Amino acid sequence: MRALELLNYLAALDDEGKLTALGGVMAEFPLDPQLAKMLIVSPEFKVSNEILTITAMLSIPNVWLRPPNQRAAADQAKAMLTVPEGDHLTMLNVFNNYSQNKHDRNWAWNNFLSARALAQAENVRAQLLRTMEKYDIDVISLEDEKKRNLGIRQALACGFFMHVAHKEGENYVTVKDNQVVALHPSCGLDPQPEWVLFNEFVLTKRPYIRTVTEVKPEWLLEHAPIYFDSASFPKGETKRALQRVANKRRGTSDEGERKTRSSREPQKEKN
């Protein structure tokens, strides 16, 4: 039932449990449903080239190496490639740097990265690209880096809106499950934003979320309005935060409508 609910929220199944047109294309990709949805809708944000890379990187083992006797050097090398806005953008940056330095056999080793895992990501990317071409899914990119990063984060939200946590005090609380979690030490987010999406839930001495990127609550309400209907949330800070965002969006919409109506009204002629 949880799996059917997930597919319904992703619009892969309709309310009667039948496969939608989107779901039919999602089924052709050898990916988890969230990854497939994210990849298919990414052209809407003009970042499908980058999402293709991120999807490939999420489909392989961890690329970072951290030898016990070289932890400080490994952490320093990782910091040089880290993108503060999120771990997914860091993955993209790592792959792009790997592609640019493929002629240097020592590049991955010097940066404490697994050359084998990165080569595997390259193969996965090529396979997914062929499937995208088969179904005429455009592979496009934005030139402006700031707009591109925003588009990437929005596309991530379209696939992983069920993996969202809201900051409350010093910790994060997962949406709907109300599980108190902390950012994993490997996360590169700086500073800690109010809303994040994550790919992994890790339980060691305490619950952690890993592979994390900042998202805006407005995107969640826009791209997953049914899931983020505040009426379905238990009382708490997360529900209040969503209601504030919804009220703000509604106020902005009402104001825009008033301005449009005003501009359409005939102006009184001056005597």
Automatic annotation (TrEMBL):
Keywords: ATP-binding, Coiled coil, Helicase, Hydrolase, mRNA processing, mRNA splicing, Nucleotide-binding. SUPFAM superfamilies: P-loop containing nucleoside triphosphate hydrolases. It comes from the Eukaryota. SMART domains: HA2. Residues 118-145 form a coiled coil. It catalyses: ATP + H2O = ADP + phosphate + H(+). This is RNA helicase.
